[in-house]
Amino acid sequence: MVTRNFCLFLISAPIASGSVDASVREQRLTSRHSVERALGSGACGSCAEEEGSEIVGVEERREGSLESCEREPRVMATLDVARSEIAFLVMYLNKAEARDKICRAIQYGSKFISAGEPGVAQQVDKTTSLARKVFRLAKTLNELNALLAPPPKATPLPIVLLGKAKNALVGTFLFLDQIVWAGRTGIYKDTERLNLISRISLFCWLAGTCCTTLVEVAEITRLGSTTKKVENELKKAQGSPSIEEMKLREQRKENLKKSRVRSLNLIKSGMDIVVAVGLLQLAPKTITPRVTGGLGFITSVISCYQLVPPPPVKAKEV
C-alpha cells in the first residue's frame, strides 16, 4: 500500500506543479495509469477527474494552436489581395486620360439627370465640364504628333487621308477648347466671339468623329477580308501540323482581337456623333439633353473600360 502511494506521488507531483509542458504531462498521465493497473487497483474518483481535465486541456490547447495557424495564412492572403487591388486603382488613376474620362462620365450623367432643367445636376454638369478642360491643356500636341507621324505600311491612301483629317480636326477642337476655357474663367472677355469659337470647336469635334467612324468601318472591312484569307489558308494547311499552321492560327486570333477593338471604337464614335449634334442643338426636338447625356455617359464608360490595363501575362513553366 505504501509502495503504491509513493509511486503515484512521484508521477503526479510534476503534473500538479505545472513545471513541465503539455507533452510531458501527457506522458506522465499515461505512466500513472499504467502504474495503477500494475498495482492492481483502479484510480480513485478524484484522480480520474484530474486525468480527464488534464487531457481535455491539452487537446483544447492543440486545437487552438491549429486554428491560429490556419487563420494566419487566410489573413495574409486577404491582405495581399487588398494591396494588389489598391495598387491597380492607383496605377489606373495616375493616368490623366482616365481621370478625364471619369469626369466626363460625371458630366454627362449629370446632364442626363438634369434633362436641361436648372438645379444641382445642371450645376455639376457645368462645373465638371469646366474642370475637364484643364485635363486637356496642351493635348493638341498629341494630335499634331499623330498628324506628322508616317502612316503604317500597306495602308490604303483613303484611310490614311481620313486619319490625318481626323487628327487635324480633333487637334483644332482641342486648341479652340482652350480659348473657351479662358473665356469661362474670365481671362478672355469677348462673349460673342467666345460663343462663336465654342460652336466652331464643336463642329470640328463632330467632323473629326465622323472621320473616326469612317476609318473604323474601313479597317473592320480590311480585317474581315484578311481573316477570310487566313481561314482559307488554314483549311489548306489543316491536318499537317507545322509551324506555318501555328502562325496562321495566331494571325487569325490577332485579327479577331483587333476586329473586336475596332467594333467597340465604331460604336463609341457613332454615339459621339449624336452627342456632338445634341451639344450643337442641330436637332433639339429629336436629340434632347437627356438623350445627349445618356449617350455621352455610355461612351465615357466605354472609354474608361478601354483604359483599363491588361492583366499581367503569366510566365510559362518550362
TrEMBL record:
It holds the Pfam family PEX11. Keywords: Membrane, Peroxisome, Peroxisome biogenesis, Signal. It comes from the Eukaryota. InterPro entries: PEX11. Residues 1-18 form the signal peptide. Its main location: membrane. It is a multi-pass membrane protein. GO terms for biological process: peroxisome fission; regulation of peroxisome size. It is found in: Peroxisome membrane. One of its GO terms (cellular component) is peroxisomal membrane. GO terms for molecular function: identical protein binding. The keyword Membrane applies. The keyword Signal applies. Belongs to the peroxin-11 family. This is Peroxisomal biogenesis factor 11.
